[in-house]
């Protein structure tokens, strides 16, 4: 995976394979503010449900169940998210999906989608965003 970070800077080198498979990667993450999660869910029509279904199918096996109630990944709420506004100018912005158990208020896994991340980084470089739901990393999780 270390090579992939290099390839992000030098796209002509290795790791073309991991891009073309487009398999989102599970990663450690700081929980997103629940206020933000709810706003994303409320504005869901902006996202393609189909792409969500595809993502679920693609990575559902890697997603863990809720540690508290045992709800399986397929029954969790999958939320398309971007990392905090501050992360993007630093080159640390990531787009992907976080699996949530809304009943237990758990954010379980964050899957980073390289392609979505690249698209979002381009949009943000132009001063826009696919979500337009800004949040700051200083915001409490809530
Ligand atoms: Zn739960």
How would you describe this structure to a colleague?
The chain has 142 residues and is an alpha+beta fold. The longest helix is centred in the last third of the chain and has 12 residues, at 114-125. The chain is 32% helix and 16% strand. It has one domain. The protein is globular. The chain starts with a helix and ends in a 17-residue tail after the last helix. The chain has helices at residues 2-9, 16-21, 34-42, 49-59, 114-125, and strands spanning 25-27, 77-82, 95-101, 106-112. A four-stranded antiparallel sheet has the order 1-4-3-2. It is built from five helices and four strands; from the N terminus they run ααβααβββα. Zinc ion is lined by residues 66, 68-69, 71, 101, 103-104, 106.
